[in-house]
Amino acid sequence: LLVSAMTFGAHAHQHGGAHVDKAETVLLSGIAGLITYMIVGGLSGYFEDKLEEEEEREHEAEEEAVRAGKPKSAVALAGKAAFFMFLYLEVLDASFSFDGVIGAFAITNDIVLMALGLGIGAMYVRSLTVYLVREGTLDDYVYLEHGAHYAIGALALVLLVTIQYEINEFITGLIGVVLIGASFWSSVRRNRALARAEAAGSGDKAEVSSGV
């Protein structure tokens, strides 16, 4: 952040082609972003730990109730777990919203386009993500998650570079598409290699069992 403020921020690009010193603005904005990220991340981790503790307590209480022959009310236990799950999801949603809004500036400064993009993300991409998780797609294509993180990292670098240099939105979008596509293709190649290895292993076993 300090390097970006002293390099890109010192020659920030302004509309009209002028360059001005915005090092202080970049540094202050970056520190505010880091603090926000740490607060949201800390709350997310806190609620995740609380949820795990509630699940462990629920499991222990059920075992004790079974041993004592007095079934414990599942309504109160489920209510506590649901409450912490609700808080956890709210914090996660807030963190994703921050990432989405900040990352959108790397693509466009048009507020209307940003609102449309975030709306599509909330309605479609989130549903698609839930579907992929339920179907186990991320377990089959193991590098997709890595590709998504690489794409986020690339957008962050583009966002820093655009402080001084103007980058075409097509290039910014293409970077993400290429990284996601490469991670998908890498996952496909991995699955094919594993399938070939399993086929070769089963063939060797068949030869040994037949005495050949």
* Backbone structural class: mainly alpha
| Beta-strand content | under 5%
Mean pLDDT across residues: 75
Count of individual beta strands: 2
Which residues form runs of ≥5 with pLDDT under 50? none
For the largest beta-sheet, the strand count, sense and barrel status come to: 2 strands, antiparallel
Number of helices: 7
Order of helices and strands: HEEHHHHHH
Count of domains: 2
Fraction of residues in helices? Answer: over 70%
Label the overall shape. Answer: extended
Strands across the major sheet, in which order? 1-2
Radius of gyration: 25 Å
The separation of the N and C termini measures 65 Å
SSE topology sketch:
Elements: H1 2-7, E1 12-13, E2 19-20, H2 23-68, H3 74-104, H4 111-135, H5 137-140, H6 144-161, H7 169-210
Antiparallel strand pairs: 1-2
Helix pairs in contact: 2-3, 6-7
